[in-house]
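Cross-posted from the bioinformatics board.
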Amino acid sequence: MPRKTMIEAIRDAMDVAMERDEKVVVFGEDVGFFGGVFRCTQGLQQKYGKNRCFDTPISESGIVGTAIGMAAYGLRPCVEIQFADYMYPAYDQLTQEAARIRYRSNGDFTCPIVVRMPTGGGIFGGQTHSQSPEALFTHVSGLKTVVPSNPYDAKGLLIAAIEDPDPVIFLEPKRLYNGPFDGHYERPVTSWSKHELGEVPDGHYIVPLGQAILRRTGAAITVLAYGTMVHVALAAAEEMGIDAEVIDLRTLLPLDLDAIVTSVKKTGRCVVVHEATLTSGFGAELAALVQEHCFYHLEAPVARVTGWDTPYPHAQEWDYFPGPARVGRALVETMEA
Amino acid sequence: MTEALRFHVPEPEVRPGGTPDFSNVPIPKAGSVPRPPIDVDPSEIRDLAFSIIRVLNRAGEAIGPWSGLLPDEELLEGLRHMMTLRAFDARMQMAQRQGKTSFYMQHLGEEAVSCAFRKALEPGDMNFPTYRQAGLLIAGGYPMVAMMNQIYSNEADPLRGRQLPIMYSSKAHGFFSISGNLATQYVQAVGWAMASAISGDTRIAAGWIGDGSTAESDFHSALVFASTYKAPVILNVVNNQWAISTFQGIARGGAGTFAARGLGFGIPALRVDGNDYLAVHAVARWAAERARRNLGPTLIEHVTYRAGAHSTSDDPSAYRPKEESAAWPLGDPIIRLKNHLIRRGVWSEERHAQAEAEILDSVIAAQREAEKHGTLHSGNKPSVRDMFEGVYAEMPPHLRRQRQKAGV
């Protein structure tokens, strides 16, 4: 089976979707002729023409606003925000418009758009190229939020997102674009060509939204993670020699609560991991759900390992990033609690 | 010595207690503004952004190059639409005061803008309106009962009680769901138009915005995208002089006009007498033809006056003279069209009075029908289950759990 980077898998997903449905259009800043700053749309304009893949002015509210209008017309826009950190000008369009058009018009109009954005840090991107704003989307009724952790899922989830009848925020952990990353920044970079989840089938397949997957089975403790942190959690469990069960959530909303509850009821312990800041982060929601549904099975308080409540720093990147040492420590502490 | 810097905050000419003064609003003579060819180069008509296209003169005659487009029957129909909208507004305003709904926004003085514009569009074209263009629905034949059901949030409300009154939605009638926050719909209209062009369709879009919300960044985004992709869209700015209590000078700043905002984008920009049914229709038709012939977007500033309050939650006497609307130099759109039709010999004061009575009867009949389905605080309502439906195409598990918890 062909091995692909996450960039190639994402490109392949858009290619497959555009091939199958002429209503799918792709646009954003630098997305057309050049193929995107991360090259996710490379070749799509050449293959499908400027009508279906094109460059836009630097205006995130314009990109999302026009995508909403196009969806109202009947197209299926899949747009790129160059970095998730740039989405704020489009936040009004996403939260008050895209998310609510089906509801407020009682289905008279709908908004099947996908908004792709590279997310997370680990690339020395500083404050404006490293943020993880997923909780700002999961807090909004009407949006779906997806965070893939590998090329196979990225392709299947993106096709599912494009085919979904509702607006989907598709956060692409940029540190995973070219290879899995377990937080060991001091070690040589690895590539997807050596990873089994770099195997990406040709053609159409989907990974359904709303389904988590076990990346590691274990009996002692459950780790809830998504995106880059899945790889960090796996490394931490190995390094600490802890019999951890690692759940890759894949879709944050709708959330696969059954998978979480089943695992935590089995292990009795839970650590939640994300790169975004702690306070009011998505981990808070996960921790609340775990105590609500598994309280009488819990042996220890639910722990959270996250970015600190500071802006994402530059020089201190690896002190901010919740790497395997911090996750490992939380695993040990929760085991001992 | 260096002079101290001075901070500038624009002020309207007069405030309550003062004498209304519109002498600073230059009103060109009806018929005096030329009608350029449809395929004119925008750079050749820059002066149209600073003038006002008018057809009806003070004597009730339709004159000049923008006149002569509409036969008697269509003008009579237009008069009926405007009168219907005014009667509808009056009844619904009263219904709000009677506690039958929470909120209402009327069109008083602005009826020509949306009623005339609607008649320049073709079936299938799509409007992205704000809250003061219900004439698009009335003139498009949307049933008044459905509008009232929405206003009452009753059991027959097509929007199931989810939206503030008057935030209608009707795809079949070319009326995009009103959001209630401002300017977002302007760039969506451009997107819809882009999609139509991408699809090789023939349908066009129209965006709507008020003078105040042209200050939002979405206005700028819309103009950039419309200009860049030559989108088949008509970008309407309804300048009714007041954004709640804020006079239009706060949003306009030092620019001559709102229409002039289009010039920097290379978008042809026309100002029209928004209280002149014939002028609004003629200008809208010109812009629609441009859009349909792949000549791109047009910006239209409708110069009008909000004679009523912003909404039922507003009291304009606190910020502008009570007599100001009577002093507005462009008059009342219904009276002007009525006088024109009388002058044409196809209408009379008697027939007008009779039509007023008939229209009022039909509005009251619609209201009775709507009230059979309930009003906001009495009678039947949309179900609590409806509150949970339609957030997504398929209800996700967490909402299912919450609905269960709510006991529905």
